[in-house]
Amino acid sequence: MLSTSTRLRLQEILERIASGAPVSLSERVYLQKFADRDATVASWLRRARRRQLGQGGNGIDRLLADLDLGPAEPDEGFDPGDDDLGDWFRGAPGWLRRS
């Protein structure tokens, strides 16, 4: 549970991240410390990164951002070396892999 003063400080840092304003390294470390331990703060951080990158958009992109689905970084899950769909599922359970 976050105290009111901690929550307000974190949200102020997140707002600056979302708007592209400068954020010091010590503030980022402070924020990441809470994001690593609290799923809510981690969600706030992902949303701020999406807003910073302009992924709010319209339509399905906005829906996914509002539902906090998908990566915050646009190319986070993409590896150009994996051009075969089967390679995407190489760590999946046996019933999901190709036969």
State which percent range the strand residues make up. Answer: under 5%
Q: How far do the termini sit from each other?
A: 47 Å
**Rg (C-alpha, Å):** 17 Å
The main pleated sheet reads as: none
Number of strands: 0
Number of helices: 5
Order of helices and strands: HHHHH
Structural class: mainly alpha
In terms of per-residue confidence, which ranges show pLDDT below 50 for 5 or more consecutive residues?
none
Average pLDDT, to the nearest integer? Answer: 79
Shape: elongated
| Percent helix range | 55-70%
Would you give an account of this structure?
This protein is mostly helical. It has a domain at 4-72. It is built from 5 helices and no strands. It has helices at residues 4-19, 25-37, 39-52, 59-66, 85-88.
Which descriptors apply to this entry?
mainly alpha, 0% strand, 5 helices, 99 residues
Break the fold down into its secondary structure elements and pairings:
Layout: H1 4-19, H2 25-37, H3 39-52, H4 59-66, H5 85-88
What would a concise description of this structure say?
The chain is mostly helical.
